[in-house]
Amino acid sequence: MTTRKSTQERRREIADAAIKIIGERGLREFTAAQLAREVGIKDGTIFRHFKDMNEIKLAVLDRLQELLETAPRGIEDPLKRLENFVLSRLHSVAVQPGIQSLIFSDQISHALGSEGPQHIAALRNRGRDFIRLCLREAAEKGLIREDLDIEAAVLLITGMVMGFLFASKDGALTEPVDEMERRIWQTLRSMLERKQVTA
What is the structure's pLDDT at 96? Predict the structure, then answer.
């Protein structure tokens, strides 16, 4: 006997399916029939959990916010916080490429109507703000190079995540995902850190 999923579990499952469909195949494929197929339920069942497709779009936005929450702030070392953030973003891209596709495209932004672009920009800005905060704190503590241009570094880190997304989607990663995530962080950290002067 199968156990029935709670409404909350089913809503999350439907939102995840919507992220995958919109992010990987575009808005034209975002239909109740495609959602139901992706989740493995009947078309009509979708509307037991959501009143209409617009409500599903809003659930997608909520789910994106949940999935892209920044790394825990309880970590004292700003570079360790940044590492957790970067590795988390890289991993989310590899596991569910639709997430970053939505964030870095206009698909969901337009689907959400007039307020959509503002919501998506706010999501992206939260990530950039977190990176900036980590780098500024690391600079204050003398953990990174004094000549580092923090604003340029924020854009480079964001662009690195996008590059990883496209390489992952294109099957162009030359190593297993976990290994590439680790190598990317090591390269980034070596670019950020102060060089130790030897006597």
Answer: 73
| Contact status, residue 136 vs residue 80, Cβ threshold 8 Å | no
Query: How many beta carbons lie within 10 A of that of residue 45, not counting itself?
Result: 15
Strand partners, 75: none
The tokens describing 150, both together, are 């923090």
**Beta-carbon contacts of residue 25 (< 8 Å; ≥ 6 apart):** none
Q: Give all domains of the chain, ordered by start, each with its CATH number.
A: 7-63 (1.10.10), 69-192 (1.10.357.10)
Average pLDDT over residues 47-69: 85
Q: State the pLDDT confidence band at 66, using cuts at 50, 70 and 90.
A: confident
Please report, rounded to a whole number, the percentage of residues in the chain having pLDDT higher than 90. Answer: 34
Q: What mean pLDDT comes out for the span 43-72?
A: 82
Residue 15 near residue 59, CB atoms below 8 Å: yes
Q: Which two tokens stand for residue 117?
A: 């672009």
Q: How many CB atoms neighbour CB 144 within 10 A?
A: 24
- Residue 1's pLDDT band (cuts 50, 70, 90): very low
d(C-alpha 185, C-alpha 83), whole Å? 7
Classified as helix, coil or strand, 106 is coil
